[in-house]
Amino acid sequence: MNCSDHPDREAVGACVTCGRVVCAECKEALGGRVYCYTCSLRVPAETPELSGRSSDTNLNWFQSHLNWTMILALLGLSIPVVIAAAIGAATDSVAPVVVIGMMALLGLLMAWGWALRRRNRSLWWILLCLFAPPLGLLIFFYLERRSDNSGGPPRPPQSRITH
Predict the structure, then answer these.
(1) 115: burial class by Cβ within 10 Å (0-12, 13-18, 19+)?
(2) Which terminus of the chain has a lower count of CB atoms within 10 Å, N or C?
(3) For the chain, how many helices (H) and strands (E)?
């Protein structure tokens, strides 16, 4: 019997999923089972023992908990900003707040960038995460202010009960 993709080559096995016969070059052995190339791509990544892929047991805590890493980076880097704000308020100086705030923002961007790269996400997500919520709040407050300033004196609420 010959390979399905290479008719001039002898088959060494059959795919356990689709049954196609495969040669030594086309054979994908995962977890002791024979697959064709197409079916080997469909083997779930959640089952490392079947897929032949390594499990994530050698990751440290920060690598296996990326969401918490991003939250801890935000909390940890906001502490110096609060301390700098207290120092700035006590000395009537803005310089410590600006310098430490910029350093904390740079550290936050580096931590979030690392976490996003580990998730195979684009770094544009940082801009989306940083600027979308404040932009949404600005739009909300602008529209709220615009509806309050209609140009005339406030009207009393109208009763919905009719006689």
Answers:
(1) buried
(2) C
(3) 6, 4
Residue with tokens 């002898």: 10
What residue type is assigned to position 146 of the chain?
Answer: R
Tens of pLDDT, residue by residue, the chain (163 residues): 889 888 899 999 999 889 899 998 888 888 778 888 888 888 765 454 444 444 445 667 766 777 787 788 878 888 887 888 888 888 887 787 788 878 887 887 788 788 777 777 777 777 776 677 677 777 777 777 766 555 555 566 666 666 5
Q: In the structure encoding, which two tokens stand for residue 64, read together?
A: 């296996």
The Cα–Cα gap between 58 and 81 comes to 34
Closest CA to 12 of 24, 20, 29, 28: 24
- 71 Cβ partners below 8 Å, 6+ apart? none
